[in-house]
User: Fold these one by one.
Assistant:
Number 1:
Amino acid sequence: MPSQQDVAKLAKVSFMTVSRVINNNPNVTKATRERVLKAIKELSYYPNAAARALNSNKSRNVGIIFPRKDYFFVAPFCMELCFEVESRLKPKGYNLFLGSMTKGSESRELTAMFREGKVDGLILFAPRIGEEEIKMLADDHMPFVVVHGRSAGKEFSYVDSDNAKGTSLILRYLFDLGHRRIGFVSGDIGEMNSMDRYRRYRRELKAKGLPFDKRLVFFGDWSLESGHAAFRYLIEQKERPTAIFFSNDQMAIGAIKAAEELGVRIPDDVSITGYDDIKYASFTVPALTTVRQNIGAVGDKVAELILDTIEGKGEFRKIILEPELVVRSSCCRPVD
Amino acid sequence: MPSQQDVAKLAKVSFMTVSRVINNNPNVTKATRERVLKAIKELSYYPNAAARALNSNKSRNVGIIFPRKDYFFVAPFCMELCFEVESRLKPKGYNLFLGSMTKGSESRELTAMFREGKVDGLILFAPRIGEEEIKMLADDHMPFVVVHGRSAGKEFSYVDSDNAKGTSLILRYLFDLGHRRIGFVSGDIGEMNSMDRYRRYRRELKAKGLPFDKRLVFFGDWSLESGHAAFRYLIEQKERPTAIFFSNDQMAIGAIKAAEELGVRIPDDVSITGYDDIKYASFTVPALTTVRQNIGAVGDKVAELILDTIEGKGEFRKIILEPELVVRSSCCRPVD
DNA sequence: CTGTTAGCGCATTCAG
DNA sequence: CTGAATGCGCTAACAG
């Protein structure tokens, strides 16, 4: 592998000039610059990342961490996010590390990549409420940004979508259709997102003067399977709901399967709604009425925030993105 | 950030001893070792990755590259693979970089991470046939491994599933059911995988003494949309197929949607099959009969191969994994 | 505008 | 078993 020295020799300059050319330092004559550029191309020289990192104390890497394996599998949302972020980081010269955080893993592991200088900053996806890791990161002043989570106790930047708003969007749509007995299926209740939606569900019920019936609530975990189980559970209640709010599309898809097995028609017998508007949402039968979270916008903001945080720009920023109701065909007026 | 020097001072040894302890060099007394370990913990010292990389000339990073954005989105398979690989690399001290290769991007970008020393090796997912990048990587002797692709011209290690076998599994199952007019929907025909399945489809037809009818073939691109379009196209043929082979589950899901729109019943009017057995495959209505590729096994092999390749162990290895038929309910005997 | 010097944190080599 | 010197490739700070 050629080094700056080799380039320098070929271009007949000192290696310092080579360094300047690479870093776009203006103090180089056009003529020399071009000579150096030519030499660089000729040798197909690439600056050594390790050396740069060593003396600038910056790795130009960002890590993105997902809470646990299962989550990752089932959430196309996460994948899209990865790419959105990556595509925005690359032009800035940053690369993206992928990390998982299996349940048992020590919080040390998280900070390790950091202390080792492998990453300059971390993106945490939907961390669990009260997560020790976050406290540690915050206490150690590590640059990190949370996606789908809010600060509680510790201060940090985050990007979240307005869960309360999205929930209201769905619920009011259901109310307008005439539904009064509406079931609720939560995601992993250990996550902010889930709690926010659940709380808003209860609040909307109360605002509408409707009773809260805990038999109409099922605590799921975002997975296809838990959506499937939730549907079977709710449909067996003595007074079955006329509509069910699923906290993500994934679970709603699981429910569609359960409905078929049970011979329950959607939406004729029960209306269901999802959340996220993943790509599959428009391909289910019936297509899902859901709430769209603009992943592109999330990725955009996340990339911006983590870069700013790394560069120490300004204060903590809290960004709440507006969700949007997407009406398809999984809901109709209740029969009774 | 504490360095070896700081640890050394605290433990009252030279920094060299610290280095030895970290690298598990046996030439350290138990007593000193423990003193050093204590100092390390006390300062919460972590070895600097950049410095290590600089002088060992190894980054201990591996990159995984997906061909284009769209592909990534639609293939849960890719995501699962990422995690499988990551979880196997981590215990070996390696981290995983995520990279995309948008269509327009120069082949230079691919080699760049390498030349910069950001990664020690690359995992290429389903590269297109005749890809320039691969040739470059091979010519430059960079350690890389291909998943879902075979060598053609250049020599390299790869992990693939037996596409021909999988295709036969499906086709023979369909033959046994009594189907004789079987449609074929390919994935992106620029990929090995697609070609392998297509060729085997034709071969099985011939072996069975069945005519090849090009009107029964649709060249898709793996996406939900192309599956949707394929179904509409095939179903409109004068002599419509009694069964359709989709080259992945994704497209089969798109087809289910199209069938619903057209009022065509699956499997009563047309049988369909998928490929991959992604998680959703068992949640569609009807559940998909498909071919399972063991992602865990793929991830396992990929991790093993890339590590071996990086460490220069042995020759190129070609690993072909056996697929398995998964019968669910998207197929039945043809009516006519 | 260009070159020289020094040092980032670590591991390899050689002395003790 | 332990320590001292040397250099990995690069850039910041200074000198010319």
Number 2:
Amino acid sequence: MSDALVGGRHLLTIGQLADYAGVTIKAVRVYHDRGLLPEPPRDSSGYRPYGAEHAIQLVKIRILVEAGVPLARIKELLEAGPERFTAALGEIDRNLRKRAEEIRRTRQRIAQLHSGDRLFVSAEVAGYLERLRQIAVSERTVLLERDLWILLQSVAPEQAAAWIADKLAAIADPEFATLYLDYDAAFDWSPDDPRLPALAERTRRWYAGRDGNAEPGPPPNPTITRLAGVAAGASSPAWARIAELAKEAR
Amino acid sequence: MSDALVGGRHLLTIGQLADYAGVTIKAVRVYHDRGLLPEPPRDSSGYRPYGAEHAIQLVKIRILVEAGVPLARIKELLEAGPERFTAALGEIDRNLRKRAEEIRRTRQRIAQLHSGDRLFVSAEVAGYLERLRQIAVSERTVLLERDLWILLQSVAPEQAAAWIADKLAAIADPEFATLYLDYDAAFDWSPDDPRLPALAERTRRWYAGRDGNAEPGPPPNPTITRLAGVAAGASSPAWARIAELAKEAR
DNA sequence: GTTGACCCTGCCCCAGGGGCAGGGTTCGAG
DNA sequence: CTCGAACCCTGCCCCTGGGGCAGGGTCAAC
């Protein structure tokens, strides 16, 4: 038998209540379990009979849930006085604004995701790679560079930052750019190719000339130089040979 | 012993990789478990050695995760061809826009939360309640009305919509407004108060006059009339007495 | 050769519910 | 008056996206 109307106060079934607030029945029961919504005394058949005050409370709960407030915190807020409640609303709103801002940024990244390296390297490195493409370095070598910079940034972000500034300056020098293009071409050469010693020598001279002008810079971190050397050498036997020649000359 | 550099390819530890992508180590392992990120073959001490390709993939994953894409879907996307991928990005972006819009709406509701009934009743009912306050109905009675409308809207939204239109029209009639204010005053009267029969009679006449002019409207749903009657009667014995008098007169 | 920072696996825990089983209730139509 | 649909009840396990902790092996530097 329904006692919904007997007391003149309890009038809604859980389903009607849930529909009113735009919430599932399950959610209502969870809010009871978590102590967010007072559970009305059962009617004679074990149903929960709700009144308008439950509907009001439930709407408040739903709004806070949608704002991303954890249930435990919602409970605190509803139990606290109105001044605390209002203060908390300010913070909640700030969080919402922050989330909106994050969504904006995420949207930009999503848009960039379908092309480009910019997401994987710093802005400086991205500029450097772009410059390489401008001077017609092969895509293969550009990608090799990109991967190297990713590793450098992962292993030693500060060193990488210093190096990339150095590289950007170097690549602005037309002589270095020519040298770089010759390396690019040498990628597929045999390690016995007779042109390699000359290339090594030109490299040595370029560095000697530059280091004469500028300060020597930070002492190269051994792990990192090895990293760069190995990464390069593993891809091209000719490049590995040049590295050897450079070592002998030193 | 570290073999990180032995092959010239595997160079990052899981911690370096995670830091690079701005992700926890645990998350990286979860992505392995879920098949999102290929797990590199272990080095001789059981560590996972990562390369630049893992870093790239991980950044993509993180961006998609931040966009709210479920891991299972991310897996599909990364496995699918680029045309499918690009198409999916469009949908993801649409979802992000939708979420931003929802945040905007939630912010408005949060702002309204600290005061007002507008969140709990329809705009029409809110207007009606405001009108009651304008003609100086007691706050107690206004809240009683509000709760009643909440119940009505929960139990039978369509009926409630029809009724509120009716009520809005009625309250615009100064005679009905006067009648309403008298009811408001009668709330605390004794059920034996000698003024009650006259009030009941005025009510009957007002309704009779109106129903003569307009069409009788939808036949009142019995559940609902009972609901309204009981809700009112339970609060005020005098009102309950008026309801009895009305029944006798009919 | 020890110390602190990493890495490994495995296990349980969290929010915020969803889904399903297995059973009782209510309500309107026939 | 009965029957079926639509509700309601409890209880249990499941999901995502990890977090935390235990218990143990490794690396690198002094």
